[in-house]
Every structure is written in structure tokens, then in C-alpha cells.
Write a structure and sequence with these properties.
The protein is mainly α. It has one domain (1-26). The chain is built from one helix and no strands.
Amino acid sequence: EAYLNPSDLVHGKIAAGSSRVRAARL
């Protein structure tokens, strides 16, 4: 389904944020 759950969006934002933090630390 194309519909995304709010929790999925939150997890996506957290994943993107963590990846950015890891890149910044490197």
C-alpha cells in the first residue's frame, strides 16, 4: 500500500538523523 503509517515516518526520520550524525562524527 502507498499509505505510510506515522510510526514509519518517525522511524524514517530517526534513521536519516542517525545516519547524518554518524556521517558528521566521521
